[in-house]
Automatic annotation (TrEMBL):
UniProt feature, compositional bias: Basic and acidic residues: 251-266
Superkingdom of origin: Archaea
SUPFAM superfamilies: Ribosomal L11/L12e N-terminal domain, Ribosomal protein L11, C-terminal domain
Bias (Low complexity): 232-250
Large ribosomal subunit protein uL11 C-terminal domain ranges (all copies): 68-135
Residues covered by region (Disordered): 232-266
Listed GO biological process terms: translation
Pfam family, one: Ribosomal_L11
Family, similarity comment: Belongs to the universal ribosomal protein uL11 family.
UniProt organism field: Candidatus Naiadarchaeum limnaeum
Protein name, as recorded: Large ribosomal subunit protein uL11
GO molecular function: large ribosomal subunit rRNA binding; structural constituent of ribosome
Amino acid sequence: MPDQIRALVEGGKATAGPPLGPALGPLGVPIPKVIAAINEKTKEFAGMQVPVIVKVKKDRTFEVEVGTPPVSALIKKELNLEKASGNPKAEKVANMLIEQAIKIAKMKEAVLLSNDLRGAVKTVVGSCVSMGILVEGKDAKEALKLIDSGEFDVKIRAGKTELTKEELAKLEQEKLALAEATKKAREQAEKKAQEIMEKMTGRERSEIKAALKEAGIPADIIQKLLPVEAAAAPGAAPAAGAPAAGGAAPKAEEKKAPEKKTGEKK
């Protein structure tokens, strides 16, 4: 059974330093050759952390097995996204073409629980639902229905993954437009929330929060404008009868037992 070294490396940028170098040294393999093999196999994942396994045999020959980053990481890399949407139902952050979904599906096909490329593509598109990403300009759930109906069968069967410069440029423009639309929508939501809160001045927090939810205000905006009551400032005396921060209401002062005089029998 060969020795196995497992590590997480940046795609195309593995080095002879930790964690690989110190682990490979005692096994007697040519470390520069191992590093070169890893970088060649992981270069398509530049900028991402990639799991690798180096198997070293008794004759000091080696094999490199490369895993792939999670689907969500591959989607963000493909679309040049820093993060997914924090409110995926209402706020979309990018649009993905079916060719890009096919490209990611082919990277992950071996480990995805699907019987064919079409199923792998559906898994990728399904991940877009929770990330706030459109697919072919449509909600990801709608795109899944189109895949089931055969809308993209020709491209999927062909394994088409190439995009033109014009298509890529258009996707970037759409991403900027979505970001601007999200910004305006959030500004409008905050303004609406402020109006509701002003009308409900003096009402219980729970009532105000319920009204904001009913009006469709995003949860993070509600939290921002209606934070949980802050604890009393350090050193400040609580109001009469008010519970101490994080504790129960103070108990009534207990009467002290009379002190026994010296020599008094117990």
